[in-house]
Automatic annotation (TrEMBL), chains A, B, C, D:
Non-allosteric. Homodimer or homotetramer. It holds the Pfam family PFK. This is Pyrophosphate--fructose 6-phosphate 1-phosphotransferase. Pathway: Carbohydrate degradation; glycolysis; D-glyceraldehyde 3-phosphate and glycerone phosphate from D-glucose: step 3/4. Its EC number is 2.7.1.90. Diphosphate binds at residue 14. Catalyzes the phosphorylation of D-fructose 6-phosphate, the first committing step of glycolysis. Uses inorganic phosphate (PPi) as phosphoryl donor instead of ATP like common ATP-dependent phosphofructokinases (ATP-PFKs), which renders the reaction reversible, and can thus function both in glycolysis and gluconeogenesis. Consistently, PPi-PFK can replace the enzymes of both the forward (ATP-PFK) and reverse (fructose-bisphosphatase (FBPase)) reactions. It catalyses: beta-D-fructose 6-phosphate + diphosphate = beta-D-fructose 1,6-bisphosphate + phosphate + H(+). PANTHER family: ATP-DEPENDENT 6-PHOSPHOFRUCTOKINASE 3, PHOSPHOFRUCTOKINASE.
Amino acid sequence: MAEVRRVGMLTGGGDAPGLNGVIRAVTVKCIEDYGYEVVGIKRGWKGLLAPEEDSVQKLTVDDVRYILDEGGTVLLSSRTNPYKKEGDAEKVVKNMQEFGIDALVAIGGDDTLGVASRLHKDFGVQIVGCPKTIDNDLSGTDTCFGYDTAVSIATEALDRIRTTARSHERILVVEIMGRHAGWITYGAGLAGAANVTLIPEVEPDLDAIADLFKKRAERGEKWGVVAVSEGVTIGEEYITQTAERDEFGHIRLGGIAETLAKELKERTGIDTRHVVLGHLQRGGTPTAYDRILSTRYGIRAAEAVKNGEWGKMVALRGSDIVTVSLEEATGETRTVPEDLYDVLKTFFG
Amino acid sequence: MAEVRRVGMLTGGGDAPGLNGVIRAVTVKCIEDYGYEVVGIKRGWKGLLAPEEDSVQKLTVDDVRYILDEGGTVLLSSRTNPYKKEGDAEKVVKNMQEFGIDALVAIGGDDTLGVASRLHKDFGVQIVGCPKTIDNDLSGTDTCFGYDTAVSIATEALDRIRTTARSHERILVVEIMGRHAGWITYGAGLAGAANVTLIPEVEPDLDAIADLFKKRAERGEKWGVVAVSEGVTIGEEYITQTAERDEFGHIRLGGIAETLAKELKERTGIDTRHVVLGHLQRGGTPTAYDRILSTRYGIRAAEAVKNGEWGKMVALRGSDIVTVSLEEATGETRTVPEDLYDVLKTFFG
Amino acid sequence: MAEVRRVGMLTGGGDAPGLNGVIRAVTVKCIEDYGYEVVGIKRGWKGLLAPEEDSVQKLTVDDVRYILDEGGTVLLSSRTNPYKKEGDAEKVVKNMQEFGIDALVAIGGDDTLGVASRLHKDFGVQIVGCPKTIDNDLSGTDTCFGYDTAVSIATEALDRIRTTARSHERILVVEIMGRHAGWITYGAGLAGAANVTLIPEVEPDLDAIADLFKKRAERGEKWGVVAVSEGVTIGEEYITQTAERDEFGHIRLGGIAETLAKELKERTGIDTRHVVLGHLQRGGTPTAYDRILSTRYGIRAAEAVKNGEWGKMVALRGSDIVTVSLEEATGETRTVPEDLYDVLKTFFG
Amino acid sequence: MAEVRRVGMLTGGGDAPGLNGVIRAVTVKCIEDYGYEVVGIKRGWKGLLAPEEDSVQKLTVDDVRYILDEGGTVLLSSRTNPYKKEGDAEKVVKNMQEFGIDALVAIGGDDTLGVASRLHKDFGVQIVGCPKTIDNDLSGTDTCFGYDTAVSIATEALDRIRTTARSHERILVVEIMGRHAGWITYGAGLAGAANVTLIPEVEPDLDAIADLFKKRAERGEKWGVVAVSEGVTIGEEYITQTAERDEFGHIRLGGIAETLAKELKERTGIDTRHVVLGHLQRGGTPTAYDRILSTRYGIRAAEAVKNGEWGKMVALRGSDIVTVSLEEATGETRTVPEDLYDVLKTFFG
């Protein structure tokens, strides 16, 4: 193992509140406790593959002291993957050497960490991973920073929307992040007391949902809130039958929330509307929970560098931060298990 | 003037945070200080035009004591207008008499208050109006409850979105309420430090906006946030040239934010996304400002009933709550004046 | 085991955001899935020891459907302990029988659950416990609802206070809950980026803290924020030497924050002030995290009733909700371990 | 009038959320629209009276673009008053000349603006004032930035505290800013639905307040929330009769909230507690309202510099930002008028 003097750090993939917490903790721990130099690499792997003038810059404790409550990532991000094109991985390794980077902390999701794992395996790069998934779907860790913030934002949205749904006697369908795993929708639907919550893991039964709202209407509650993951799909036959044409004669198609709203209106006769939370869920100051978790990740990642735990990734197991093999930790999507969804179904109605 | 013993109250049109503040204040003041009985009428004019079993119910101080921080309206709302069909206004007047309602407090926007004004004029109904416009576009009052809350929500959204736009080096276009008047977008764009803010009052110059973002990119800020009112329009030629076809071959058309995002991407080469805040802006607990304003409105409305100021509407003038003629106060849309928009333009860039 | 038809439920001790989440989940699950009747018992053990007219009341699904986002407890609370006076425990058991309560869900801290454990042991009462500790110091569970909310509130306070401390070049000392365990202060001090965080588990070194602030001042940062648990103690010699006399000649003594502020001022020459968060940390709407955890607790408690897991308590272990023996789970205070406090110390300065 | 090339700006007195909004607007407007140079003066008048190395620094648009949502003041503040010591005012004027500052924007309260007024009158300094009073008690303007934020924070505190007061059947007394004028307490007490609100303008009747809580208790509401300004005083006889002695035998005296809590407990028999919000009310991100108002103030102040409106202060009148004479605008405290307090009293109970 080569001695570590200069540690590089990068963030890749979609941003998640808490990234700056990791960056801050790695920087402070490496500098203050271990005497390393720390350099920030801009725009994920892109900053090492095709470095521009600002791509590699020294980070000081003063640079990061008060970034804990900032959303996004001060290192910027990209989706560049050096294993997509022959020869790119070699370039990354060569540039690391040219910048004198002895060890690398790579913060990102499955894609970013997959690259990290291969760089370690293929070239012996001294690398430590830190998981980042706002969707909470990485199999190698119990949970991840960003998730709690996203659930909080979506929950607050459901809280707000409930009052307007009730006042106007409408059904409001709220589209929440989650293409393959329904974790954010699950959390927000539970915490935000949605009347129905739909996740990609379970096929929705539109007739049953319509019945539920009809029953609510019968007992005087002619309104409701539906939380639905963006990744939920319903059969194509539903889509065409309610298509509307705009002023140019084109069929107007929307996402799942819009489609679902139309279907529920048709089946229940209750006025329905939809909202898509979208990018609102990504940005902004992290919750206290995410600040703490990201800080603990960062501290442990710095320790892993000190210990030479190359090819490992920090992870939460119960209440502990541990390290696990990057290779084993990535590649699988963790979905919402049936028993948790059952908890939610208790409150449908 | 007929003696007042029982006061009715209703809310009409779109809901706005603060409605419950008015309801609470009218109820408490009328009962505790004047000894009136107060009845709540459900679903706006609909509750008087076609009363159902639950349409007219007594309100007590205990019913309303702690509703000040609740969004929506405990009296529910509708867009029913008894002047749309011959004979309906008469039915409303007759039902008021049958329910023994001597005076009416009507809380709503231009439509609801227009009905109130005519009922007073045509039938001598003892009526007092309270303005409600989340859009801040009623000409009869300086501002109205609900507006501050809507601006606060949209501002927080812009705050959040800025960090993700910057981290991913994207332009994010945020669609904010306001079909005819740009007040909410104006307030949020200013408070949320949007790089560009577009309102219906001023035609947007897409080339100038694109230039602005190109200049930002040249100085290293390859990202930005645009706040745009839903009512902003751009020429049809823009729309067709960037149309995308979905998997069914249909042209996918969206609102102004989506269209604008595509146009800016084409003109700047910077990745762009959009978010539509929609119903998020309506619901939820009112800000302290809106709780205070709505309470002051409600107190003054009760005083107006006591004083027999029929055909009048409460209004804010400077720091004072006054009453103005319903007839004169309604019918005109107040838009964002040029000098205020100029303040905003100082910060474009 | 006696068949269960009517389930009683009570909350004891200090309130914690999330109590209503447990109440709601137990009620809905017991009624909808198991067909039990559920009765709420007011004011903890007091409601069974000395029942008043309103002490035992039926709970319906409609009663609890929308209480998830409300702070406090709809069942009210008290600190009554029927094991403090001879014969009281027997009265509780007798009253349970008179009210026809076959099984009891007791939600509370060490004191409440200790009673539950003994009632089960001494009289065979069919009882299930649910832990509640805003202080996060119950040894039987990984964490508890209320804690995340308290940390969030205190973190937001530290965020706010930082800007005013910096603008006025002051040290601000913030007193946070925690008499015996420093968990809330630990979490908030970490998430709120306090310059120093003090917890009851570790004796503070005032000279070292003063030195830290002097060093900050030397590099131009003549300000700072200290997070301190209410339970932190410093030697009496400190107290007297800085005592001030008020206009009546009495010595003015305060809590730890006030005392610490005076000491730091004397040692550093920097203007210092203090704030005591106090009851602010208890109330208000729970975070999404606490809503989810409390709901999962409630569901599992209802299942425990169904399963006849008497004398057990629900608990979080890793990501799972399990049941553990009430007897073993209570009686020990869980404090902040040294390695976690070390994470925090990395950021002192 | 000397031509303006370089504009200085300073902030004095207690900080108020929104100060950075003024600083940003003055800087951007002066540079972008008028081509002035802008320099920030650190620590109010102290920065001109006894300048240190960092006291006068150039401000660029980039320095201020994203400070709108930050609490505090990037220019720091002090309470230095150059009219307290002979010869100091002359030093300020001389230093202004040495720094080449042709015009000065002074942002502050009565004290800071009083100095500004005299410097203009005594030495012809080209000065424009901007009012800052979190207490809302400056007579020259309808309202001021910072006030809305302070009211919002205190309102949220009352919202939170209500749930814990109710759950524990306690009276909670909350001490809110306001030594001479009760504006913040007035706003928060109204918006936060306090059961009783006390302001310095009106002497409290403790027996009447106790009766109110006794009546509440009789109808089953054995709890309540009192909002009280720090400046409220009650007769000394109350204080001594409930004095408690600590473990050292010293009498323990607190502020008005603590004293009031003891008195109410003695008179009602209901458990009472108190909270002092203190510095919490000053810091943190400004509300959208305060961001907008402070921006409008800053723009108008820059215009006043351009127009040579020396010796004037920007002010809000109705919906308009105007300028008024500094001399006339300062020196008087604006208190809560009786009719506004009457609105509040309607809801006592």
